[in-house]
Write a structure and sequence with these properties.
The protein is of the alpha+beta class. Helices cover about 40% and strands about 10% of the residues. It is built from five helices and four strands, in the order ααββββααα. A two-stranded antiparallel sheet has the order 1-4. A two-stranded antiparallel ribbon has the order 2-3. Helix 2 packs across helix 3. The radius of gyration is 17 Å and the shape is flat.
């Protein structure tokens, strides 16, 4: 899942999302920020943790295991959604005061559009004539 729009909102949001998922016991999820370099035994790896040194956007991938159930997937998606919604609330909090709500604030349609992390980045659509 592309995290390009999340990164545009906040440079540290991509790694923060990974931390939030880990804290909420979402195993198998891995966020990959852009521009990470790691040197091991004198060899520098550009795009460390990524599938390519030239990947155009940060992303999240998730692994699963044999025996995973629909309920497991639903719980993972629910926790991911909750984390992404918190970024929408954070953005609204920074933009100014809003009327208090008795219930947990939800992501507005505009926020959901802006935070839509399922839109493909350039690498996802290369060679795909349907886009």
């Amino acid at each position: 899942m592309s995290l390009g729009s999340l990164e545009k909102q906040n440079q540290k949001a991509v790694t923060q999302l990974g931390s939030m998922l880990f804290t909420r016991q979402v195993s198998g999820a891995r966020v990959v920020p852009l521009g990470t370099e790691q040197t091991v035994s004198g060899h520098t790896f550009r795009g460390f943790m990524s599938h390519s040194a030239h990947y155009p956007c940060p992303y999240l991938n998730a692994a699963s295991a044999v025996g995973i159930t629909r309920d497991d997937v639903a719980l993972c998606v629910k926790r991911l959604d909750k984390c992404l919604r918190s970024f929408g609330r954070e953005k609204r909090d920074q933009s100014g005061p809003e009327e208090p709500s008795a219930t947990e604030p939800s992501v507005t349609e505009a926020d959901a559009t802006e935070l839509n992390t399922t839109e493909p980045c350039a690498a996802d659509t290369e060679g795909d004539s349907s886009h």
